[in-house]
Amino acid sequence: MPTPANNPARLVVLVSGSGTNLQALLDACEDPAYGARVVAVGADRYDVEGLARAERAGIPTFVKQVSQHDSREAWDLALTRAVAGFEPDLVVLAGFMKLVGPDFLTRFEHQVINTHPALSPSFPGMHGPADALDYGVKVTGCTLFVVDPGVDTGQIIAQRVVEVLDDDTGETLHERIKVAERQMLVESVGRMSREGWSVEGRRVRIG
Ligand code: GRF
Fold first, then answer.
1. Both 86 and 160 in a single domain?
2. pTM
3. Strand 156-163 relative to strand 9-15: parallel, antiparallel, unpaired?
4. β-sheet bridge partners, residue 153
5. How many angstroms does the Cα of residue 68 sit away from the middle of ligand 1?
6. Is 7:35 a contact under the CB 8 Å cutoff?
7. In this structure, which residue's CA is closest to atom 14 in ligand 1?
8. Cα(178) to centroid of ligand 1, in Å?
9. Rounded average pLDDT over 39-66
10. Residue 80 and residue 151 in one domain
11. Which of 23, 26, 54, 204 could form a disulfide with 59 if both were Cys (CB 3.0 to 4.6 A apart)?
C-alpha cells in the first residue's frame, strides 16, 4: 500500500498546458494542514503557462521533450530519472499530454495519477468533452485514476458528475468539467497524502 513516506507528502506534477489543475494544488498546499507540497513541476514542452505558474511559486521545474531523445524509450527513461530525483510520494499528471512508458510506470507503481475530463470508462482519449457532447449524453464529468499503460483505463480513484446543457459547446462543457476536476483533484490528493491508499485489482481505497 503506498503510504506517503513524507509528511507533508512530496508531489511532482507534470503539465503540458495552462496548468489550472496545478494551480489548484499549489493553492491547496499553502495550508500546512493539507498534508502535501509540490516539490517539482515537469513538462514535455517549453513556454507553457503551467511552468510559469511553478516558477512564480518558486518551485523547481524541468522539461523533457520527446524530440530531444533518440527514442520514446530514451525519453521515458530520462523523464523517470528526472522525476525520481525529487523522490515523490505521488506523481500527478495534470493535463500532461503524453503517455508515460514502462520504465516510468514500473518505477512509480500505483503512485502515478491522472485526471480525465469524462466519466470513465466512457470517452477516453484527447477529446472527452467533445465526444460526450457529440454522443448526446445528458451527464458527463471527470475521473481521477491510477495510471496504467492504457489510455485513461487505470483504476478509478474518484469521479464527479457534470450536467450537459442544451447550448453547450465542447469548450463551455470542458470549462465546467474543469471546475469539478480541480475540486476532485485537490480533495483526493489531500486525502491520499494524509491517509495513504491501496490498489487491489480494479479497486482503489483511500485510508
Ligand atoms: C484537463 O481537463 C485535463 O483533464 C485534460 O486537459 C485539461 C488540463 O487543464 N487532459 P489544465 O492544464 O490543468 O488547465
1. no
2. 0.96
3. unpaired
4. none
5. 24
6. yes
7. 20
8. 7
9. 98
10. no
11. 54
Range of weakest confidence among 1-5, 90-94, 113-117, 174-178:
1-5
pLDDT tens, residue by residue, 64-102? 999 999 999 999 999 999 999 999 999 999 999 999 999
Q: Is there a single domain that holds both residue 130 and residue 177?
A: yes
Same domain, 18 and 101: yes
Handedness of CA 172, 179, 54, 101 (dihedral sign): negative
93 and 129 assigned to the same domain: no
What is the extent of the structural domain holding 39?
A: 8-109
Atom of ligand 1 nearest to the CA of 15: 12
User: 138 vs 26, 133, 134, 160, 182, CA distance in Å?
Assistant: 32, 8, 11, 14, 21
The rounded distance, in Å, linking the Cα atoms of 180 and 203 is 22
Name the nearest CA neighbour of 93 among 72, 111, 75: 111
Q: Which of 13, 15, 20 to mutate to test the pocket of ligand 1 (most atoms within 8 A of CB)?
A: 20
CATH number at residue 187: 3.40.50.170
For the segment 155-186, what is each residue's pLDDT rounded down to a tens digit?
999 999 999 999 999 999 999 999 999 999 99
Identify the pLDDT of residue 5.
86
122 and 141 both lie in a single domain:
yes
**Is there a catalytic annotation at residue 116?**
yes
Mean pLDDT of 118-141: 98
Per the CB < 8 A criterion, the answer to whether 156 and 173 are in contact is no
